[in-house]
Design a protein that fits this description.
By secondary structure, the chain is mainly α. It starts with a helix and ends with a helix.
Length: 82
């Protein structure tokens, strides 16, 4: 029963990470042209995390988090209760 609960927690975590990653993609809301100031004119736009050139880097981040979760999950199962 505990194994099933750990599995559900794992899948919930993976799904949450995927949803958060997808939510971070896309464009921002349009800004009115007359609101642009000197400070905002000098700032560059943030890079799109969903661009094909950036995908390997973003996938590597998710993979690292999943491996870390797996390691901690196995360690928690092997640690005696007490």
């Amino acid at each position: 029963m505990k194994k099933a609960m750990n599995r559900k927690l794992f899948f919930l975590t993976v799904i949450s990470l995927l949803v958060a990653g997808i939510a971070g993609c896309g464009s921002k809301a349009p800004v009115s042209e007359n609101v642009v100031t000197a400070a905002t004119a000098t700032l560059s736009s943030p890079e799109d995390r969903c661009a094909s050139a950036n995908l390997p880097k973003e996938v590597a981040k998710v993979t690292r988090l999943m491996r870390s979760f797996d390691d901690v999950s196995v360690l928690a199962q092997a640690t005696p209760k007490g």
